[in-house]
Amino acid sequence: MTRVxxxxxxxxxxxxAAGTVSAHGAALRGSSGSLSIPxxxxxxxxxxxxxxxxxxxxxxxxxxxxxxxxxxxxxxAAVPRVxxxxxxxxxxxxxxxxxxxxxxGAAFDVAPADPQQNLAILVVWVGWWAGxxxxxxxxxxxxxxxNPFRTxxxxxxxxxxxxxxxxGAWPAVVGLLALVFAEVALPLAEDAAMLAGAITAxxxxxxxxxxxxxxxxxxxxxxxxxxxFDHYGRVAPFARTDDGVVLRVPGxxxxxxxxxxxxxxxxxxxxxxxxxxxxxGVAFVVALVFATTYDGFVATPAWRxxxxxxxxxxxxxxxxYAVAYALGFLAFVGVYRWAARSARRTGxxxxxxxxxxxxxxxxxxxxxxxxxxxxxxxxxVSLSLPLATALAAxxxxxxxxxxxxPTFFGGVAITAILVGHLLAxxxxxxxxxxxxxxxxxxxxxxxxxxxxxxxxxxxSLWIVSQxxxxxxxx
Length: 474
What we know:
Elements: H1 2-16, H2 39-57, H3 63-71, E1 73-77, H4 81-107, H5 119-138, H6 143-146, H7 148-155, H8 170-185, H9 192-213, H10 215-222, H11 224-233, E2 238-241, E3 244-248, H12 252-259, H13 279-297, H14 301-311, H15 317-346, H16 353-359, H17 363-382, H18 384-392, H19 406-435, H20 439-444, H21 447-465
Antiparallel strand pairs: 1-3, 2-3
Helix pairs in contact: 1-2, 2-19, 2-21, 4-5, 4-9, 5-11, 5-17, 5-18, 7-9, 8-11, 8-13, 9-10, 10-11, 12-19, 13-15, 13-17, 15-16, 15-21, 17-19, 17-21, 19-21
């Protein structure tokens, strides 16, 4: 234990020594940031932290210690049934109705058109996609109870057609990629009426799917938002089970997911336990990591230079974004598949490549959570005052943005990315000892996956180190 504590202290020291970078998020167009240390040194330090954490994790070779560190959970209390079946669904429905009312109201001049004053835009992008999503991986997943589309679908008669097993998670993969690309390519953060229309279209599709295939099957497999939120919740320290709310080690849910032993979420249907048993489930995890990375990358000066150069001969802007989006996602998937194939070779195992890819995918969710926090924390805090003002007085003049200390939030962004990657390394280490019978085999099989994590770390840190600019042609 002394050696473990010493290792943790070294890693924390390396994190604090990584330097300071001005915060930015894709929605904070026009802000800027700068490094106080050379970029190459900053990136090398970040990648070195992840690499060093893997070396330190290899000292923990006691299977019992590794397993107990994730199996320990303490039951706190049961969630009152009225809260999860009446109060939470009602809050979700009222929130959806308010967003649609203020969204469509802007088209008829009965609601403010200013993005920093319109309740629909502020609630969706600041309160929900930034602030609420943070609670999923920092606290726990409450979306199954709040989800208004799930609530609506449960009141409608179901056709109860069997969900095609061959589909797996692929509808969710396509849906997530489509939603993120629409967020980047369309002015959904500026046009309240367009945002309300997009939410309505999504709602019609997802409610129809739940009616045809059943609420539980649809939201566990095919709905991209429910699946993403379920995955984020597995990083969190709190989870709801049949026994009530349990407190566990952060990341324990990821180890359970890899082993296929995730705890049940209650017997009242208020859960979306997304399986991770096929190639589609793995692709969805990679898409979750890639989506936020792409959203940040298109707001960097490097992307502006590339896009403008390609656009100069007359290539349509939307085509440039679409091609880059598709190629980027395929590259992320290809790199991860390479890691799975390499793990089979270096681990000297007969475990199939697809099985290795499935077992080692959950640690990527810790990376996705860390980058989401780095990407949106400054954005959320800077616009929390306009959101509070809009909630209190929807027709009042827009409130000024809060002053955000760049150095402070830059440090938080770096720490969030590194902590997410360090947690991913530890979870991968625990999974390795569950998959492989020999200690050295378990360590060697992780080499390629850790290399991929270092690459993701370096790319993420490079993005947050760049000044944020308005993406061209949008």
